[in-house]
Design goal:
This protein has one helix and no strands. The protein is mainly alpha-helical and 71 residues long. The protein has one domain.
């Protein structure tokens, strides 16, 4: 492995290393990411742990062009 330039490393355990508490990151999460995620949740398919589909159509009648989201 060493002859090919490979080496053992530890797998990262978290998404953030540094900076996740910086003011600009917190502001982005609170004002941009979380509101967008909340909006998307209203259009997501949902399943239980027993693999039962619970999708409840929450698309407003006034917005028929909105598509369901699968993440």
């Amino acid at each position: 492995m060493g002859q090919l330039g490979y080496h053992w490393t530890k797998e990262p355990k978290g998404q953030y290393h540094n900076g996740h508490k910086c003011a600009d990151v917190v502001e982005y999460c609170q004002k941009t990411f979380l509101p967008a995620w909340t909006w998307l949740e209203n259009h997501m398919h949902v399943w239980t742990d027993d693999n039962i589909h619970l999708k409840v159509d929450k698309v407003p009648i006034s917005m028929p062009d909105i598509k369901n989201v699968v993440i």
